[in-house]
Write a structure and sequence with these properties.
Length: 147
């Protein structure tokens, strides 16, 4: 059996102290879910629902840090692209509703397993996320070829 991974690494420009404070408060609120979903409060519950986190899940499943005026959003070993994209979309809604961002990712595994390698990308705006994965691309081409 092999271990599967999803890797990505992007940088989001942080232009103001208010943006940095929003990011820190956002992650602190979600971090309060680690204490107890009962004690986390309505804001944390609202964010958990938005990210589709279950009671027992206490993280966004991606890593982040501030570096050189940017917020680095990445996965050290394996991360949740959907949660990272949702976070960025919330940031855009709050600060840059006319802007965009993108995340590309790679999927791989520790042992050579058929069909376990691939990747994709998501293009994010304040109002939408457009996704493409290598798996979906291949499936569409196979359907097109068979027609």
């Amino acid at each position: 059996m092999s271990d599967n991974y999803t890797g990505f690494s992007e940088r989001l420009k942080i232009n103001t102290e208010a943006e940095r404070e929003w990011v820190e408060a956002h992650f602190k609120t979600l971090g309060s879910l680690e204490d107890s979903s009962d004690e986390a409060g309505p804001e944390a519950e609202k964010l958990a629902e938005l990210y589709e986190l279950e009671e027992w899940e206490h993280s966004l499943d991606f890593d982040w840090n501030f570096e050189d005026g940017h917020l680095s959003i990445y996965s050290e070993e394996s991360g949740n692209v959907n949660n990272a994209a949702t976070f960025v979309q919330l940031f855009l809604k709050e600060f840059y509703p006319e802007d965009h961002f993108h995340i590309s990712w790679a999927n791989w595994c520790s042992k050579s397993s058929y069909g376990e390698f691939g990747g994709g990308a998501v293009f994010i705006t304040a109002e939408s996320m457009d996704w493409i994965s290598s798996y979906d691309f291949i499936q569409a081409k196979l359907k097109e070829f068979s027609s």
